[in-house]
From TrEMBL:
Keyword list, A-Z: Signal
Protein name (record): Thioredoxin-like protein
Organism: Rhodovulum steppense
Residues annotated as signal peptide: 1-24
Length: 132
């Protein structure tokens, strides 16, 4: 009887096990502040197209107010000081950081350098989903 129960138990565990490995969530947090001219420049130049880019597909944007309490689901190496500060988060934990907005041309190169180090970039590149 114990063997039959053990067989059913094992079968139930295998049936309930996920078939794939869960992927960690990758997010680009933008710490901003009201009145920040560089935040406004980013909003004008990058924000409208971010969701339609390979970078935006890999790391969706999450906006955070620098002057508010840090959400409980975020762990940073240190509190941002400058606005905007872009922090790449994996499951809420800081992976990389870009402080300030150096303009459209430099931003794409710098943020691209950060994202190309992530496994999601290579996976999407192999599928033909990432340019460059």
């Amino acid at each position: 009887m114990k063997r039959v129960f053990a067989a059913f138990l094992c079968a139930g565990l295998f049936a309930s096990a996920p078939f794939g490995v869960a992927r960690a969530e990758l997010v680009l947090a933008m710490f901003e502040r009201a009145g920040c001219i560089y935040c406004r420049m980013w909003d004008d130049q990058i924000a409208p197209i971010w969701p339609r880019t390979a970078e935006g597909a890999i790391a969706p944007l999450r906006r955070l107010d620098l002057d508010r309490r840090l959400p409980d689901d975020i762990r940073l190496a240190s509190r941002p000081v400058f606005t905007p500060t872009f922090v790449l988060l994996r499951d809420g934990v800081e992976v990389a950081r870009l402080e300030g907005y150096p303009g459209e041309d430099f931003f794409w190169g710098l943020i691209g350098e950060i994202l190309r180090k992530q496994p999601e970039w290579a996976e999407n590149d192999e599928k033909g989903g990432v340019e460059g």
